[in-house]
What does this fold into?
Amino acid sequence: MLYPQTNEFRDKLDLSGFFGFKLDVDKVGEKEGWEKGVEEYRYIAVPGSWNEQFVDIEDYLGWAWYFKKFHLLSARKGRLIWVRIGAASYYAKVWINGEYVGEHEGGDLPFQFEISDKVKFGEENLLVIRVDNELSPIRVPPGAIPDENKPRFRPRYPDVNFDFFPYGGIHRPVYIFSTPRSYIRDITVFTDIQDDKGLVYIKIEAEGRDVERACVHLVGEKAGLSKEVKFQENVAETKFVMENAIFWCPENPYLYELMVELYSNELIDKYSLHIGIRTVKVKKGKLYLNGKPLFLRGFGKHEDFPIIGKGLFLPMIIKDYSLMKWIGANSFRTSHYPYSEEMMDMADREGFLVIDEIPAVGLFFGKGIEKRLTLCKQYLSELIARDKNHASVIIWNVANEPHSVYPEAEAFFKELYEHAKRLDPSRLVTLVSMLGVKEKCLKYFDIICLNRYYGWYTEPGQLDLACQKLEKELEALFELYKKPIIITEFGAGAVAGLHNYPPKMFTEEYQAEFIRRYCEVFESKSYIAGEHVWCFADFKTAQESLRVVLNRKGVFTRIREPKLAAHLLKKMWTKYPTEESYVRMPPVKDALKKGDIL
Ligand code: GCB
It folds into this structure.
């Protein structure tokens, strides 16, 4: 799915700003014709979550309506007009000028509808979106799980089966955009490497009657290649061989520009992408980027900030990459849902490796399983369609910590793995597990991802015992599968400003010591391919007895102030020569004195 672009053939109108907003607690809006507009409403900012903008609806998770007027120039007549919503949590239904145009399930992926015959040119138009953020066991991620299926007793308010706040609202930009009637619908790029050559495979899909051929240009700083390809049934495929190619990697995130020009008799459309040439592979228990061993250092994160909630906040994207560079990270996971397209673009530019995750968190097996599988497949298709051309994305993740002890889990995850591989054979596919050696489904996946909290949820305060258990489990897991293991979560809560020596749970010292001890174990195992600390920053959760408003496992506070652990990580992760730093690091104990935190 292509992001709306502007050039001489395409334009877009960003509707971000204030929208009219009205709650529909009793679900009467459609019966009362709210799709034609309402007289009474309040204002809300888009993008942004409603829960953080209003004091009276912080925990409201029901239906709400959004209203926005916009103008279209008469000059747009004859072109295709589209509405595109970057993300609306959780379900959205859309009308233009009172006419229904479509609906979409899933709160973290973009959707668009063609509205050419519903808009008025040279006049005012009304866009209406009904957003429904109700929790339900048959939604993904699921909420309000029926008691008999609850994996453990952990009541939360709101009643979610995951550990972050279920924000409602339109969280990413809303665009009205236009394309020619015959246009480039999609571009898919795969890259490979042969010695010093970069191989770039390109598929172009077009729409419209008079599509004939495309001119494709691959342009770098020192080299450029061009080709003409003919369409057959609106699909054209080609391959470039770039001699002495510059390969994309964290130390040199070099991007080529790929320009596609669509022709009938004459030039009718254009689209350009930035692509990186790189490979990611697993061989004999190790992970490789461009044929070199790869070790991931970084975090699990969240899209969460005071006031804007889960809404797109561009300065935070810049700030987070800046802090991740400062600390010496080279990667992150989009826990526990796809992040914004803007965040993904910046990962390509800044050289961060990404484990890209669908919103399949808190999955359980039992009633409603077919619907949840259908949704997971839909999300995987939509995520891969959206992010397939990002050099930064190296792994697709099909779920976080499913409660997959039930026999039907095996077929469920086998199907998801095969679905992802069918859509994208070039990347690795994983499942982030909490069950470890007890997980039945890891055998299907290319690489193993494990979340561990010995010394926190179990063995509280006992880091020696925690590390012994960790080491024992890692050995057993590798013995079982002989696949590289990334630790996708490990961490301890720390209330910023709370100190104690010797380290005690919830102090900054304990969090730092916990991370240091875990990393020491990882660095001594050659099959460990990465360490992602949970979490980058403190984040808001549902209310429950285990959380003090926020989950405090961030090494930065919610407003991005470093805790002691951030300084420790910087010390550990920036010790190594930059060009070599994505190659496996020397053991942490060589870089650090024991007990030396700052
Ligand atoms: C986990 C989950 C994550 C939680 C974390 C915690 O295993 O994947 O969503 O926030 O533990 O802090 O409990």
